[in-house]
Amino acid sequence: MDWIFLAELAINGALTGLLYSLFAIGLVLIYKASSVPNLAQGGLTMVGAYVVLALSYDAGLPLWLAIPLAAVIMFGLGFGIERVALRRLAGRPVVMILMLTLGLDIFLRGTTLAIWGGTSRSMELGVSYEPLFLGDIFVSRIHLVGAGVALALFVAFMLFFRTRTGIKLRAIADDYMASWSVGVSVERGVGLSWALASVVAVAAGVIWGEIQGVDQALSLLLLKGLTVAVLGGLDSILGAVVAGIILGVVENVGADFLDPLVGGGSRELIVAAVLILTVMIRPHGLFGRHDIERV
Amino acid sequence: MFYRLSGVHHANYVSDSRIFKVPADRNLAAFILLLGLAAPFIIPSLYLNSYMLPWLIWTAAALGLNLVTGWAGQLHLGYAAVMAVGAYSAIHAARFGVPWEFALIIGGLMSSVIGSLFAFAALRVKGLYLALTTLAMQFVMDWVLTHSPMISGGSHASLQSPTLALLGQDITSDTGYYYVAFGWCVLVTIFMLNLKRCGLGRALVAVREKDFAAAILGVNSFYYKILAFATSSFIAGVSGALLVATFFFLAAPEQFSVAVSIQVLAMVIVGGLGSIIGSYFGVALILLVPGLVNGLVVSISEGLGMQVNIETLAHIPNAVYGALIVVILLIEPLGLGKLYGNIRDYLMVWPFDQFKK
């Protein structure tokens, strides 16, 4: 085995993995605040990307204006989704909340495609496609940019959770009832987490849209994002970043070994296997909180 | 007034364990059964084949999922994969020359075996994590299906189903297909109706409410979870096989993808967890309404003289399907079955409850 080739696989895997983290941070934010598994994150990511495209290409705004504007719009959308849909199902069994977010996902996807059509569109960020060589190792520039965005968001959220609002969110995550009783507005906090997750979805949508084109496939990131979130522990942002890197490396290196054996396409299989193994061996993930259930 | 009694009051255990506790319900069920038997003579064959038949088979499948999710309380997002196992095993068996009766049973049993694997995930985790594991298992099964030409049938990944023949009769007419689907759906419904009132059903409900508490009461939750998964998988397998044999005529991996798993779960939840009549409603709603809305949009836009983009039209059913799930869950989280129950309870005591106030 060629070590340089292996290193290249690992580094590119880690970069791709950080892009999965970018997606997974949205899931973690919502789960942290309200214990709701947001299966609509894929749909939100897709909507985010399409809104950016609509603002920049259809309305003719420059990209540096379109992306923040899209983030503002999505902030409102996230808040609205929580207000209209999720709040009314708070406290219901998890199966109904799962179904609700699945329904939202289908609805968001269907509506987006009904408005903007299903043909794949390209998102040009102006990052050059010239390969970047670190020594002998080839690295894709856009992946590097995306990984940078993911890390920046991670740092931003780490700082955010130290502010007053962030501490409120942490309190809500810790105990609904207790934060209610000390006067923290739980509803607003949960709404805020949805809004922030939608903003993260814009970031993920833009980066992934540049990499693989803006179309329905964006919502397929959900399985990978979920795997990263579960491996990291569902309520830990640090976990999402670390797990993203792990999944990316395992996927990239593993696929290189497995593909010749099974005739290609083993990435999905590896991701699904990682998810199953995580849940079987360590359901609360690497950094997640271990819940104790009482009868 | 409508039900000719005011409320259900049991005087002995026999009346408590009846399937239909209200005579009017029994009469209604008998009437619908007769209607179902007469359907081929009432309904034009186009509707019979493209609406009634899939409705009945999907209802049977949804009832199977209801058994494991509604009764035993185990989330299952890999149901379509289990249906695929049944469909592919049955069709391979039939192509091999096994009579269809046995091929269907082989399909069901194979599904049971594979479906029980899902149960092992249920023994370790529950709730959200179980949902995610079964989802991942669905992806694994999808992958196996699309990557093994031996199962999925060569380069085009489609497998022709041989002519259906039951009890020595070749079934090729629309009416014949309909009766096969009808018979299977009635069988599953009768099974589920009886499950409600026997020990097994009560044990499953105990496991659903709290598996630890059930274990303390002496209900072996390990055993009942596996039993629930195996039984529901058997129903799934036979339903999947019948779906291919009477409706698709061709088995392809996309017919049993993740989206289908989500769709069956949506049918069950929109219909109402643990509600039999609800499953009928849920399947009808999820299966038929998106198409109806699309037709409506087309006719309205034609009426107004507007030109609707063809791509928009193609995606409207999806948007409607998602919106239906969300709206029903917001209106009544317990589903259409609960809505029906509310109306029934109101009518049961109708004029008399007015006097209480």
TrEMBL record, chain A:
Keyword entries, A-Z: Amino-acid transport, Cell membrane, Membrane, Transmembrane, Transmembrane helix, Transport
Keyword Flavoprotein carried by entry: no
Pfam families the record matches: BPD_transp_2
Residues that span the membrane, as ranges: 6-31, 63-81, 93-117, 137-161, 226-249
Entry's localization field: Cell membrane
Protein origin, superkingdom: Bacteria
Membrane topology: Multi-pass membrane protein
Extent of the signal sequence: none
GO molecular function, one term: transmembrane transporter activity
The protein's name: Branched-chain amino acid ABC transporter, permease protein, putative
Organism: Pseudooceanicola batsensis (strain ATCC BAA-863 / DSM 15984 / KCTC 12145 / HTCC2597)
Source taxonomy: Bacteria, Pseudomonadati, Pseudomonadota, Alphaproteobacteria, Rhodobacterales
UniProtKB/TrEMBL annotation, chain B:
Keyword Transmembrane helix in annotation: yes
Origin superkingdom: Bacteria
GO molecular function, one term: branched-chain amino acid transmembrane transporter activity
Alphabetic keyword roster: Cell membrane, Membrane, Transmembrane, Transmembrane helix
Cellular component annotations (GO), alphabetically ordered: plasma membrane
Chief location bin: membrane
TM annotation in the entry: 28-47, 53-72, 79-96, 102-121, 128-145, 176-195, 226-250, 256-273, 280-300, 320-340
The keyword Transmembrane helix appears for this protein: yes
Pfam family, one: BPD_transp_2
Membrane-protein topology: Multi-pass membrane protein
InterPro entries per record: ABC_transp_permease, LivM-like
Localization (cell): Cell membrane
Database matches in PANTHER family: ABC TRANSPORTER PERMEASE PROTEIN, HIGH-AFFINITY BRANCHED-CHAIN AMINO ACID TRANSPORT SYSTEM PERMEASE
Name of the protein described by the UniProt record: Putative branched-chain amino acid transport system permease
Species assigned in the record: Pseudooceanicola batsensis (strain ATCC BAA-863 / DSM 15984 / KCTC 12145 / HTCC2597) (Oceanicola batsensis)
Lineage of producing organism: Bacteria, Pseudomonadati, Pseudomonadota, Alphaproteobacteria, Rhodobacterales
